[in-house]
């Protein structure tokens, strides 16, 4: 996953703005961008995407024939952009649950309260919700060229506990509670 120093994964809050299209235009960022794409091709087969991006590429449409991919998906969806069909499609495509994350930090500050970040969604508002915070363990740091940094993390909680909390969050967002 590519993110700015302030954790933004997009260059703005509209579909017209896109890191893959915009970063190559910005002096001081475009120079080191190629190394991110090179790293992306060599890392484990995990895919961190936003629900917004997946909705744009049609994951919410019923897919009768699902081809299982050797990829595990981690989805960040703050609206939600994904519907139940989209979540089911991703679960059926995914290889296994995620227990690590790699982030390339670009030398940029994007800002904007409505700009997507690594982890968007409803803000925590009670002490009880602190259990939703996912603790990570730093497993690697590599300084790249042109002021980029490559970070690797593993999860602290067992994958099964982590998976249950992710699934519960998805279900809570997709299934409205009765009044």
Chain-wise SSE layout:
Blueprint: E1 2-4, H1 19-22, H2 33-42, E2 46-50, H3 51-56, E3 72-76, H4 84-93, E4 100-106, E5 136-143, E6 149-155, H5 159-174
Parallel strand pairs: 1-4, 2-3
Antiparallel strand pairs: 4-6, 5-6
Structure description:
The protein has one domain: Dihydrofolate Reductase, subunit A (3-Layer(aba) Sandwich), CATH 3.40.430. It contains five helices and six strands. It has helices spanning 19-22, 33-42, 51-56, 84-93, 159-174, and strands at residues 2-4, 46-50, 72-76, 100-106, 136-143, 149-155. The strands form two sheets. Strands 1-4-6-5 form a four-stranded mixed β-sheet, with no helix packed on it. A hairpin with a 5-residue loop joins strand 5 (136-143) and strand 6 (149-155).
Summarize this entry quickly:
By secondary structure, the protein is α/β, with parallel strands linked by helices.
Show unreliable segments: 175-179
> What is the typical, i.e. mean, pLDDT?
76
Tell me the β content: 15-25%
How many strand segments?
6
Radius of gyration: 17 Å
The helical percent reads: 25-40%
Strand order of the largest sheet: 1-4-6-5
What is the overall shape? Answer: globular
How are helices and strands ordered from N to C?
EHHEHEHEEEH
The biggest beta sheet, please?
A: 4 strands, mixed
Instruction: Report, as a whole number of angstroms, the end-to-end distance.
Output: 38 Å
Number of self-contained structural domains: 1
- State the CATH class: Alpha Beta
Q: In DSSP terms, counting alpha (H) and pi (I) runs of 4 or more, how many helices?
A: 5
As for the CATH topology, it is: Dihydrofolate Reductase, subunit A
Structural class: alpha/beta
